[in-house]
Amino acid sequence: MKKLQFKKDINASAEKVYNTMLGIGNIETYEQWTAEFNPTSTYEGNWEKGTKIYFVGTDKNGKKGGLVSEIVDNIPFQFVSIRHYGILDGENEITEGAEVEKWAGLLENYSFHEHNGITTVTVESEVTEDYLDYFNTTWAKALNKLKEISEK
């Protein structure tokens, strides 16, 4: 497991960046920046602390898949922590086995720090070795897209 960190300065309030990133009030803003990971990326659930949330998309055959996760913490406009603990295969939750062990317990944290109208978003993500190159490339693209959407 490797811990990655990415930062992006965005010319918008922490409240606007937080709401845009999480799709609060309009899930489409979440889907727009996460399309960098998967063009069909979305979530099912909500961002309340302690709740289950699915991060999902569909594959080239139209089959739904993704991660089963829990919102560990959510301090609006400041911090969000997500713990991944399973995978979604179609409608089936899989929370144990070799495929899940790669992801189980990995954290993804988002921090929002506003200063003089500029918000610095920090993403800390734990990933497995086999996804290192993918996330190093894709997170940068996704944060650039988040910046573009948030600054509108």
Automatic annotation (TrEMBL):
InterPro entries: START-like_dom_sf. It comes from the Bacteria. This is Activator of Hsp90 ATPase-like protein. It comes from Tenacibaculum caenipelagi.
